[in-house]
């Protein structure tokens, strides 16, 4: 892996590559995820503001291929940019609530998340391995930490997570502010989310195996 001067997430390219899609209107969090992912040799599709400048940096420092599209996932640009590639990882970042941001409205945020997870979640399920990360941007987490709780949004993303989990897709859901890390930056957030990949599936598989073992013993008796 290439070093960016900080700890990097370890992502097997054979499982989460060869391409990852990172969708966010806000640039800081998207760039942090892109750096971690590209450092593992995984190519990146970056649907975020300022994506072209970040794409050049990633291509030079990590030697990966980078495609950029508009952060507006409903224009068809993202679909066209990903139709011919094998996507093994989706990072869906919910952006800051802002009156000037199209994706700041809760309903549009949910529509965007649903569209992305449906489009790429099924593709990842069909390939038999890969993952989906749903996370709120660092700016959004800081705002919600000082304002109202997001119970409805959490229930919505939890429902998507459970549906993808049933299809065998690894899911990392990180939509709550982490109070014991008040000074965390976007790189910390990306590292924390990427480190959660695979944990839910592992526990689920272990539980299933334990249940099967119990049934086998009960039937034998």
UniProtKB/TrEMBL annotation:
Q: Which domain of life is it from?
A: Bacteria
Task: Locate the region Disordered.
Answer: 202-221
Species annotation: Mycobacteroides chelonae (Mycobacterium chelonae)
Provide the protein name: Short-chain dehydrogenase
| UniProt biased composition (Basic and acidic residues) | 207-221
């Amino acid at each position: 892996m290439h070093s960016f001067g900080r700890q990097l997430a370890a992502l097997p390219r054979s499982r989460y590559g060869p391409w990852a899609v990172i969708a966010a209107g806000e640039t800081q969090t998207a760039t942090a995820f892109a750096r971690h992912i590209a450092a593992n040799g995984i190519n990146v599709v970056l649907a975020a503001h300022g994506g072209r400048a970040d794409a050049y940096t990633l291509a030079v420092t990590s030697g990966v291929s980078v495609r950029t599209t508009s952060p507006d996932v409903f224009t068809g640009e993202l679909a066209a940019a990903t139709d011919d590639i094998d996507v093994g990882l989706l990072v869906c970042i919910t952006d800051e609530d802002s009156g000037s941001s199209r994706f700041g409205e809760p309903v549009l945020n949910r529509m965007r998340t649903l569209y992305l997870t449906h489009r790429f979640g099924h593709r990842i399920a069909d390939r038999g391995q890969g993952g989906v990360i749903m996370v709120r941007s660092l700016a959004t987490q800081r705002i919600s930490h000082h304002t109202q709780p997001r119970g409805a949004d959490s229930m919505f993303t939890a429902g998507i997570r459970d549906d993808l989990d049933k299809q065998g897709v690894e899911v990392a859901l990180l939509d709550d502010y982490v109070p014991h890390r008040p000074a965390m930056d976007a790189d910390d957030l990306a590292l924390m989310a990427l480190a959660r990949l695979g944990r839910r599936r592992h526990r689920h598989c272990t539980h299933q195996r334990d249940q099967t073992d119990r049934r086998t013993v009960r039937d034998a008796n």
